[in-house]
Structures are given as C-alpha cells and as structure tokens.
Amino acid sequence: MAAETALALAEALTAGTTTAAELVETALARAEAARPLGAFVHLRADAARAEAAASDARRAQGAARGSLDGIPVAIKDVMIHEGEPCTCASRILENFIAPYPGTAVARLQAAGAVVLGRTNMDEFAMGSSTEHSVYGPTRNPWDPSRTPGGSSGGSAAAVAAGVVPIAFGSDTGGSIRQPASLCGVVGMKPTYGRVSRYGLVAFASSLDQIGPFARTAADCALALEAVAGHDPADSTSLPEPAPRLRAALTGDVSGLVIGLPREFFDADGVEPAVLDRVREAVAELERGGAKTRAVSLPHARYAIATYYLIATAEASSNLARYDGVRFGRRAAADTLAAMYRRTRSEGFGPEVKRRILLGTYVLSAGYYDAYYRKAMKVRTLLRRDFEQALSGCDLLAGPTTPELAFRIGEKTGDPLRMYLSDIYTVSANLAGIPALSVPCGFSDGLPIGLQLLGRPLDEATLLRVADAYQRRSDWHLRAPDPATWAGPGR
Ligand code: GLN
Q1: Whose C-alpha in 91, 192, 202, 326 is 20 to 30 A from the C-alpha of 251?
Q2: CA of 419 relative to ligand 1 center, distance in Å
Q3: Ligand 1 pocket: which residues have CB below 6 Å?
C-alpha cells in the first residue's frame, strides 16, 4: 500500500474519510511488517491508541488543533518524553525514565501528533550507520543487507518503510541528512538554535539540532513549524518565533541563484553515480528558472578534522555525567572509583569510548591549544567561507553523502572510513546553517540525495526549492518492497 503524506492524511481527517484511530492501527500494522528492519526500539501501542482516541474526540467537538492533530509520528531515542524510557541506544541508560518533558516532544503533543514510538540510532548519536546500537543494527528498507545510514537510521527507515509519514532525528554532523539520503526520504537540519535542545540528550552541544524526516519537503515544513521557535528553557534557542514555512512552498524557483561549491563536486572519493544524479537535479532546477554559479569553500577540506576534534571534545565533557550516581545504570563495586570505572566500562559501547578518549585527549593540558583551540579557529574560517559563498547566492547545492547505502559490517572495523561518510554534512553544523537532503535519483536500486544548504534562519528557501524539485520529479513516489524485509535471522 502506498504510504500517504501527513498533509494528505490531515485532509482525510478533516474530510472525515479517516480517523486518528484508524491511522494509528495502520501505522502499528506497518510497524509490525517492518519489524525485521529494526527501526523501532520502543512502540507505544497503548499510549498511541489513547492519544488517537483523544484526537478523534477533539475533532468531533470541532476542536482539532491543526494539521498534525491525529498524525502518527516517530521520535529518535535521544529525545526525552516525560515518564517514558530514553536509552540513546546505550546500555548505560537501559533503565532511565525521563523525569520531565522535552520541548520538541511536548510541542508535538500540544499539536495533537500521536507519538507511535522511539526509533533506533547509533549509541548517543555517534555514528553514520545505526550499527553502534545496543539493540543491534537498523536495516535499509531498500536493501536489508545495507545500513540506513546514521545516526538517526531508525527514523529514516521508519519513514522510508511507510510506517509513519513524519519522524524526528537529531543532526550533529549529518545524522538526519545522511540517513535521509541513503533511505530516499527528505531530512532537514534546521539552523542551530531553531529547535530547542531542551530534552535532547547532548552529544556535542554547539552542533546538535533536532529536525524532521518525511517523504516530502511539504511534510517537513509542517513538522518543523510544529517544533521550531524560541524556548526560554534552552539558552541557545534563537529568539525568532516559529517560521511560517508552508506559505513559502510556491513551486517557483525562478530567479533563485544556486551556488555550487567547487569542493563538493571534486570527483575524488565520490561515487560517480552520486555526482551524476546531483548534477541532473541541479539542471532540473535550472529548467525551472533557477540560475547557478560556481562558488568556493576553501576550508571545507578541513571540515572532517575540525568536526571530529570539536564533537569529541564536547562529547567527552557531556558524557562525564554518566557516572552511575545521577543517571541510569550503576555497577556494583567496593569503592566509589571502582564503581565509576565499572559503570562506564560496562555501560558504554566501543564507539562511544573511542569518542570520549579522543575528546579527553584533545582537551587535555598541552594538547588543548594544538587541537581544540585550533579547531575552533578553523571553525570560524569555515563559517566565513559560507558567509562569503552565500552573499552572492540564495542557497548552495551538492551531494549529501559521497556514497550509496553501504553493507552492514562494511565499515565498522575502520572508524576513519565511517567518519568520511560525513564529509559533506559536517560543515553545515560547524557553520550553524540550515541544510536538507532531498531524493534525487537511484543507482543500483539505492537512493541518492541532493543536499541544499542555506543562510541562517532561511529554512524557507531550502524547503521551497526542495518542494519545487519534488513537483518536477517522482523519486519520492517510489517505495521499497516489503517482501524483501523478512529474511533469515530477522
Ligand atoms: N556521523 C557523525 C558522527 O558520527 C554525525 C553524527 C550526528 O550527526 N549525530 O559523529
């Protein structure tokens, strides 16, 4: 069955041709069919049914709350939801129950969305494949022998598999855009500070940002409108009110200038099919009246090194709080020091330990100036590159990720190769600018994404261009074949 968009479902709810109760049953049945993919770590069947019934009751009273009321959505297991588990796919948080509401989830509930469940991820959002999870890997709906990308792979797979029309993830260095690209859906990282981080478990606080996945840019606009906007509980939240994004989706791109960063089209280390499809997508936008211009991001070549210094430094500091005293799991031991050591040795997986070690190293006396401080300086240079490039154009375009969905196990033994998946995505986080990935074709049956990057707070232009592209293309109408999902051992 073709999966509908959230906007189509909202129309059907308004017209009375379906009910929220029906939508939640369909979503639960599809979640069951998609179980072999491992996209969810926790389904809220009873709670979701109760929320759907409440939504139907509101609507019957003429008190529906807006387009998301009664729509099933999924959230990544890194976003807290009061009174419910939040494990970040880590053993160290196996028993953790969120004691207060996180802003993004609270806003979704205020909008009437029905939270179907929590999605799988790389532990503490560290990874690019959703393999570093205590629950085991998530599989790509287009080819279950491959990864969905990561770290928000469960959310990307849940949308690609048609379980929910909208899911949320977090993007610190590409964790929304890269899995969106590899799963053939739209995924957006908003401007840093656009969506409150209150209730988002911290990985690298100066880079983390919550954002939506959906099959269409229009659904992403709907989803982002619901969660964006100032939140006094997050000191880094921007003062601007939630943007009106759907009004920007005119279908028209004429006169817009798209910058093509030379460094993003350098054929070195990129799958040729990726660059071909991206160039074709840009040509399609030109046929729609957009203009292109070559631009340069001279410091982009330092982005991966800069990101993996800053992100690990912040992670080592943020993850110090998991000490067995205040949060989650505590190992038994005779002394306090032994308790700390055992709790953290048993509680964290190998990739998280690697990040903590790297980050502690780059922050230590004697190395701080050489690594952390230098990375902060390069971050400023990179931000200026984007300011310069975006001063002469409305947005930038390029690939989202250099490759197609890779095989499960292919890169887990080689962290550096895994880190290179993020080569085109980390820059937007370092610069704080919004960026999205929109499906732009296939190669060998695997999806490819076009990345659009914009000026701070200009999510509207990115969504407008992505929506215009989707009106001119049909990649997002293709769906993976559920018959391929069940398999030996799954
Ligand atoms: N893949 C990147 C990393 O491993 C980005 C992760 C993310 O955006 N959360 O750090």
Answers
A1: 192
A2: 8
A3: 125-128, 151, 170-175, 203, 311, 422
Q: What is the pLDDT of residues 289-341, one digit of tens each?
A: 999 999 999 999 999 999 999 999 999 999 999 999 988 899 999 999 999 99
Closest approach atom of ligand 1 to CA 178: 1
The residue to mutate among 416, 422, 437, having the most atoms of ligand 1 within 8 angstroms of its beta carbon, is 422
Is residue 176 within 8 A of residue 185, CB to CB? The reply is no
pLDDT tens for residues 6-49? 999 999 999 999 999 999 999 999 999 999 999 999 999 999 99
Task: Give the start-to-end residue ranges of the domains of the chain.
Answer: 6-264+266-297+384-484
Reading the block at residue 99, the tokens are: 């004691």
Distances (CA, A) of 152 to 135, 182, 295, 311, 375: 14, 11, 30, 17, 26
If you measure from the C-alpha of residue 67 to the centroid of ligand 1, how many angstroms do you get, rounded to a whole number? 31
The CA distance from 295 to 280, in Å, is 18
CA–CA dist 209, 426 (Å, integer): 12
Rounded Cα–Cα distance for residues 264 and 275 (Å)? 9
Q: How many CB atoms lie within 10 A of CB 88?
A: 27
What pLDDT score was predicted for residue 407? 98
Q: How far apart are CA 245 and CA 424, in angstroms?
A: 25
**CA geometry: angle 457, 458, 462, nearest 5 deg:** 140
Q: How far apart are alpha carbons 372 and 317 in whole angstroms?
A: 13
**Distance of CA 118 from the midpoint of ligand 1 (Å):** 19
Contact 74, 168 (CB under 8 A): yes
Note the pLDDT tens digit of each residue in 51-62. Answer: 999 999 999 999
Specify the length of the chain in residues.
490
Atom of ligand 1 nearest to the CA of 176: 8
Residue nearest to atom 4 of ligand 1 (CA): 127
DSSP conformation letters of 408-431: TTSSTT-HHHHHGGGTTTHHHHHH
Q: Is 83 exposed, middle or buried (0-12, 13-18, 19+ CB in 10 A)?
A: exposed
CATH code of domain 6-264+266-297+384-484: 3.90.1300.10
Tell me, yes or no, if 181 is annotated catalytic: no
Residue 397 CA: distances (Å) to CA of 81, 102, 275, 281 = 35, 33, 11, 10
What is the distance between the alpha carbons of residues 237 and 244, in angstroms, rounded to a whole number? 17
pLDDT at 253: 98
pLDDT digits (tens, 9 = 90+) for 192-214: 999 999 999 999 999 999 999 99
Q: What is the DSSP track for 59-103?
A: HHTT---STTTT-EEEEETTB--TTSB--TT-GGGTT-B-SS--H
